[in-house]
Amino acid sequence: MKKKVQSRPKRGSHKTWSLETMTEAVRMCLTNEMSVRAAAKMYSIPRATLQSWVNGTVEIDASADRKSLLPDHLEKKLIDFADNRAKMGIGFGKEKFLEYAGKLANKHGYKFKKVRPSNKWWRAINRHHTKKIKLFTNCGLFCLKVYR
């Protein structure tokens, strides 16, 4: 039996530190109570990550997700639009949602590469608004349902 050969070595685990330990480590470094290297070792935080936080390269409340092309108030308007249509019982699918998002963005001076947003943007807005937008099948049609 052949063993599966890994194409590249595994790079280690993802974030194991909490926001509380990170802020405590940053505080220790900024007040000169501890060096970055010592704080990283004590709090089990990667040194380069802690250094970025101490230098201010990374904001305290930063997330790993990319920023959306549309500002929050326009995303909220999109969600409300889908919610209102669902309450009226009007079928509203993913394609129509993306078409409306493209028109709304264009109206407010934001441009997607193609006139309407991509599936990647669709997945990102679903991540940003976790458990608010669901695509479900009813009578063979795909419809959006917004949960509050």
Quickly give the structural class. Answer: mainly alpha
User: Helicity, in percent?
Assistant: 40-55%
* Arithmetic mean pLDDT: 79
Shape: elongated
In N-to-C order, the SSE pattern is HHHHHHEE
The parts where pLDDT drops under 50 for at least 5 residues are: none
Separation of the first and last Cα atoms: 53 Å
Domains counted in the coordinates: how many? 2
Main sheet attributes: strand count, strand direction, barrel closure: 2 strands, antiparallel
Question: Tally of extended strands?
Answer: 2
Q: State Rg.
A: 22 Å
Widest beta sheet: strand line-up? 1-2
Q: In percent terms, what proportion of residues is strand? A: 5-15%
Can you count the helices? 6
Notes on the structure:
By secondary structure, this protein is mainly alpha-helical. The protein has two domains: 19-55, Arc Repressor Mutant, subunit A (Orthogonal Bundle); 72-146. Helices cover 47% and strands 8% of the residues. It has six helices and two strands, in the order H-H-H-H-H-H-E-E. It has helices spanning 19-30, 36-43, 47-55, 72-88, 94-107, 119-128; strands at residues 133-138, 141-146. The chain has a two-stranded antiparallel sheet with strand order 1-2. Helix 1 (19-30) runs antiparallel to helix 2 and helix 2 crosses helix 3. The longest helix is centred in the middle third of the chain and has 17 residues, at 72-88. The model has no long low-confidence stretch (mean pLDDT 79).
Please specify the SSE layout and strand pairing.
Elements lengths: L18 H12 L5 H8 L3 H9 L16 H17 L5 H14 L11 H10 L4 E6 L2 E6 L2
Helix pairs in contact: 1-2, 2-3
